[in-house]
Every structure is written in structure tokens, then in C-alpha cells.
Amino acid sequence: MLGWKGASIVLIHEEFAAFMASPVMIVLGTRDGSLVPEIARAVGAVVHREEGRIDLMISEWQWPRTVLNVRANGQLAVTFARPSDYVSYQVKGQATVAPVSAEHITLAAGYRKSMCAALGELGLERRIVAPWLINRDLVALRLTVEEIFVQTPGAKAGQLVERQP
Known Gene3D superfamilies for this protein (predicted)? Predict the structure, then answer.
């Protein structure tokens, strides 16, 4: 199990926090007021286990609609997928936009470096990967975790792991 129920939040297990800190692709999903979907990529995540919160660094310059959607309705789904074997989890909840801290900026730089290396080991050249991982005009999307789902392809795909009470 990757999460457990707290009083009013989903606390995040160490196992899941470690997974999110490993070289995983972080794909964000939002929607606007007309239900038009938008996807984006984050350049790192800071997990606040006990608070049931994840801070996701995203380039507002590259993904302005995603940031606008979060500001408008707060709805956010995030998929964490390990490119070497497609082990994946999706987290859903409510998010707000916050300024990045020094910790966020440092983490984003390390994330970009580790993802370029991980994807390079799988045969993707840095020139192909670099446009996915932009750190210009970073903001933090502060996600309060409400649900966690297995997304790894197979029989358990879509299975709810945990839900906020």
C-alpha cells in the first residue's frame, strides 16, 4: 500500500515518496472551465509525507494553460511513471499555485539532470529530452493528495490505492 488515511488527508508512505523522488516522468493533467483537457510536464516533486502534500515544479512559461487551469479550479491529476519499466501511479487532488523556494529550484535542477541521464540510458538523446524539462519561470503547484491510483499497465491499472476519508 502506498498511502494511508489520516484525519482528513492521505498521508504518503515512504515507499511512494521514494518512488516520486526517483527518476520518474511527471505528467500533469488539468482541465479548463469548458472541460478542455491540458497536459504538462513537471520538473520535479517535493513530497511532504505527513501533510499529504506534493509540491510540483512546473514552467509557467512552457505550460501557461496548466497553471491557469489550476488557478481557476484547483483540480490536478499527476502521473508518476518510471520510464525503464512503466511502473506508474496517479495522484489526484486539489492544488494551488505558489512561488518556488530555493529548495524547489535546487530539486528541479537535480531532477532535470537525473531524468536526462535515465532517459539517455534508454537511448534518448539529450537534445530530444531537453525540451520536455524546461525550468524557465518556475512555479510550484501545491497538491493536497485526495486519491492515489495504480497506473502500471496490467490487471491492477486504475485500481484505487487510497482515498481521503
Answer: Electron Transport, Fmn-binding Protein, Chain A
